[in-house]
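INTERNAL AUDIT FORM
Audit reference: QA-55
Scope: verify that the stored structure record matches its stored sequence.
Auditor: D.O.
Record contents follow.
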Amino acid sequence: MFAPQPCSPFVAFLLLWAGSLLYPCLALAQHQLDPETWIEMRKMFRQAGPEPSIAEDLAALSGAQARKAAARLLDRGLEVLPAAHAALLNSEQDPRVAVTLLALIGPLGDRSSVPVLLELLGQQAAHPLRR
């Protein structure tokens, strides 16, 4: 009978080295997409039906559906910012929701968020994130 032989350490090293050369090409392929294309692709895989409003998604950030609500808000883009800014500056806001809002504002990368963040850091000592 034919019994498989263990490969030598040199052959194993060559296989791992060749695999490591191919891995970056495979891993970085998904990042070649434009952000708009990525958002449209994400929308295609969502369940069909009425989409919640921005206010409903902001309210859902404190519940069990927080991850889905955050993804929907991020996919909406810059139209979310006014409501997110108002919710972030609310001194009654739950700190976990405020951290989620900060995480949503960052990837959108709009300059209109800078004054809101400066106001949050500078003037509102009573805000839950400042405690």
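Auditor finding: record pair retrieved intact. The CA atoms of residues 19 and 41 lie 29 Å apart.
Action required: none
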